[in-house]
Amino acid sequence: MSITIREFKPSGADYAILADLLTRVWPEHPETAADLKNTDDMRAKHLVIRRFCAEVDGVPVGYASFGHMMWLYDPQRFFITGGVVQEFRQRGVGKALYDHMLKCVEDEYSGNELHTWTTDDRESGKRFLEARGFEEKMRSWESRLDPTDFDFEKFRYAEERAAAAGITIKSFAELQEEAPHLMRKYYELEWVLEQDVPSPEKEKTKPPWEDWLRQHSPENKEFTPDGVFFAIAPDGEYVGITELNNYEGNGLLYTGLTGVRREWRRKSIAMALKLQAIRRAQQLGNRTVCTWNEQNNPMYLLNVKLGFVAQPAEIWYTNKLT
Fold it and tell me: Which of 77, 211, 251, 289 would be 44's cystine partner, CB 3.0–4.6 Å?
């Protein structure tokens, strides 16, 4: 069996190939060429992204990629992904892809640190990574909610408690008339809340304003103005947020950031925000809501209380290259 590794091109044909490979490797998160292209179009220009395709007799059977991370940016730190379709696993394709990618990372970028993930139920994936020096750094849960028959009355107390604290909840779409102050408030709130999101690295990177602004504009097809909700204090301060990102290609809604400023916690604000997002999911056709939480994050327990169902744990691995 002859394995050929080639670099992906940002073309319609290659986006379609990549979407097909990703969907076959991770069927629980189907991809489309349009969504992949949109993600690349919104990517900050200083963030490297490289992808490779493995072919056997001209047929694509696997992929690998590496790129910088926006919130954990370091020019020598890369997040990698990869996968091989079921019928070609255990035949050297994954090794060929990884070796090719690693050489590129080290030779062209002097990369010295790799991050990646797999799910706890993929034993072969864990063995592959651990055999190459990757070590577990963090575990998270993906959780999913079908909002069709959600019982809002059961959680009405949360909205009443948040309102009693003087909190008003409004969507980004409702607040757009406040621009440009809305965007600056959004940007700064997200950065404050991001500090409390569990991460494999202590030091996070604040995205450049221009890059962040572009990703939160109508130019980004994933950005959903009426799916972003803010908790607003009586003095007008933005104290909490939840975000729903729209992936039209697979019909899923992905939760971005949900959080509340420390001084405003324990007032049921986070739950009140999540309830608004669930209402929006119903309005969008009862689309499944996906979210991710580190295993010790209190937000995970809040999601379970709301009825989110945990999927297999996701394990974040790191590898300090020497």
Answer: 211
